[in-house]
Amino acid sequence: MNIPSELKNKWDLVSAKYEKKRAAMLPILRLSQDHFGYITPEVELAVAEYLETTPVHVREVVTFYELFRRKKEGKNEIRFCRTLSCSLLGAEDLLAYLKQKLGVEPGQTTPDEKFTLHTAECLGACEIAPMMQVNGDFHGPLTKEKIDEILKNL
Amino acid sequence: MHLRNTKYEIRNTMVKIVTKNFNLKDSYLLSTYESTGGYQAIRKAMDSMTPDQVTEEVKKSNLRGLGGAGFLAGMKWGFIPKNSTLPKYLCVNCDEAEPGTFKDKYLVSLDPHRLIEGMMIAAYAIGCHKAYIFIRGEYVRPYERLQAAVDEAYAKGYLGQKLMGKDYALEIVVHRGAGAYICGEESALLEAIEGKKGWPRLKPPFPAVVGLFGCPTVINNVETLCHVPTIIEKGAEWYAKIGTAKCGGTRIFCMSGHVKKPGIYELPMSVTLRQLIFDHAGGIRGDKKLKAVVPGGISAPILSAAEIDVGMDFDSLKAAGTMAGSAGVMVMDEDTDMVEALKVATRFFAHESCGQCSPCREGTGWMYKIVKRICDGKGRAQDINNLLSIGQNISGTTICALGDAAAMPVTSYITKFRDEFEEKCKMKNEKLKITI
C-alpha cells in the first residue's frame, strides 16, 4: 500500500523522537487512523514495514487498545461512561435513553453515519458524573435534556 | 505556623502546593508560572545542590507516590544504579484511569509547567537526559495543554540540549496512550511507550534497574512530581511538617458520587475521611445518610459509614484494611444497592484485564458473570462463597496487581454488606428493585 507523502512525513517527524523504531507504533497508528478514518490490514502491513517489525506485532497493538478502530465509524464519536461514580448518579438510565434516541447499540453507527456510540470505562471525569465524551470533549453532569442539546449542536 | 499535632486535626487548611495557581488567569502559560516564582527551584537545584543532595531532600520530605502505591519517591530515585553506563529514563504516569480519580487531568490542564519543572529536578537528580510523559488517550484537551507547555519550554530554551541554558540536555516527549487501564501499571506503561501491547512485566528486575529499553528508569505519577519544585524551594523539613509523621505534604483528593460538592480538594495528608466528606465536599446530597465510601480508587476495599474517622494518609488507611491509593473517593448514600455497585466494579475489571495471567483473565470475567447473574435474580446458594474463593485465588498469583485489585472490591463489599448479597441470592424470580 502506498502511504501518501503527507502522512509519511508525519510518520518521519514522530519517529525521530524515539530511540527505537518500534516505539513509534502508537503515535504512527494514531496518525494513520486520523488520516484514513480507521486501520485496515493494508495499513497494518505498511506500518509493520516502516517500523521494521512483523505484521502480527501491529495487529496485537491495534486489537489490544480500545481507541483504535478497525472499521469505519460515524462523524461523531460518543463514549458514554458506565463506571462507578457515573453509575451511582444514573448513567444506566441515561445510556438507555441515548441508545433509544440514536436507535443503536454500543459499537454501532447511526444509519445517517452521524454518530457512533461506545460505552467507556472511567474517563477521569467523575466530578461531572454522569458524563460522556463526544469527540475530544467531556460533557456532564448529563440529563436527558442536556444530551438532547449536545447532540443537536453537532 | 505549622505545628506538629494530633493525628486527626487538619493543619493549615490554606496551604496549597500544587493547586495554588489554578484560579489564576491563563494559569497554564509559562509566563504565568514564572511570574509566581516558577522555574526557580530547578535553578536552585542545579546551581547549589548535587544530584544526590536533591534526592536526599526529596527523601527527607516524605513525599509518597501519589499515583496509588505510596512508595517514598526519594527512595525510588535512589534505586537508580550510580555506576551504570546506560542512559537513564524518567517516565511520567498520566494514565489516570483508576475509577474515581481525576486530579492529574487538572494538573496538566491548569499548571503543566509545574509538572515540567518537577520533571527537570527529577531528571537532574537521577542523571536522566530523556523523559517521556505517558498521557491516556482519552485525555484530548489536557494533552493539547500539556504539549503546548512542553513546546513553550523548548521555545524558551528551557528544554533541549541545554536545560535552563546549562550544559545538561533534557528532552521531553509526550506519548499518548490508546485506551487501556492496565497501562497505568508501571511496567505496562513501559511496554506501551516501547510500542507494544500493555502486558506487565515480571518483577524483579524492577524498572530502576531494567526499565525503558532495558535501561534504568524512574516512573512517577504526575502529582508526585508536581510537589517536587516546592520541596526544593521551601525545603524538606517544611514539607514534611505538613501531613503526618511518615506522609509529607498535601495531596489532591478527588470527591465524587453522592456528595453535594464533587471535585478536587488539595488538603494535608492528615485530613480524615469524615472531614473530607462533610466539611469539604458538602456532605451527602439530599441530606441522605452515608452508607459506604471507596477511599482510594475502585481497587480500594470499601469502608462502611462507621469507619470514616480515619486519616487519609497511606499508613492510616492501610492500618484500617484499605488503601489511600489514587485518592479517588467515591461516596455512596443509603439508597445504594451494593450488589449493583459490585456489578459495575467487577465489569470494569473484567473489561480491563489484559489477559496475560490465567487467574485474572478467567477470574475477573467469572466474578462479573456471577454478580450479574445475582443482579438478574438468578443467584445461587454457593455464589457468595464462590466469589470469595475466586477472589482469593486471584490474589498474589498474577504478574501485576490488577488481579489483587479486582479481588479487593469483591471481598470487601461481600464482607461488609453480606446480608444484601444473601438477600439478593434468595430473591430468585422475584421482581428486583434496582436502585443505584
Cα(first) to Cα(last) distance of chain A is: 34 Å
CATH topology of the largest domain in chain A: Glutaredoxin
The string of secondary-structure elements of chain B, in order, is HHHHEHHEHEHEHHEEHEEHEHHHHH
Rg over C-alpha atoms of chain A, rounded to the nearest angstrom: 18 Å
- SS content category of chain B: alpha/beta
Draw up the topology in text:
The complex is a heterodimer of chains A (154) and B (436).
Chain A: H1 5-15, H2 25-36, H3 41-50, H4 55-64, E1 76-81, H5 84-88, H6 91-102, E2 115-120, E3 132-134, E4 137-139, H7 144-152
Parallel strand pairs in A: 1-2
Antiparallel strand pairs in A: 1-3, 3-4
Chain B: H1 30-35, H2 41-48, H3 51-60, H4 73-78, E1 88-94, H5 103-110, H6 112-126, E2 128-135, H7 141-155, E3 171-176, H8 186-193, E4 217-221, H9 222-234, H10 236-241, E5 250-257, E6 263-268, H11 273-280, E7 290-294, E8 303-304, H12 314-319, E9 328-333, H13 338-352, H14 358-375, H15 383-394, H16 402-416, H17 418-426
Parallel strand pairs in B: 1-2, 1-4, 2-3, 5-9
Antiparallel strand pairs in B: 5-6, 7-8, 7-9
Helix pairs in contact in B: 2-6, 2-9, 3-6, 5-6, 5-7, 6-9, 13-14, 13-16, 14-15, 14-16, 15-16, 16-17
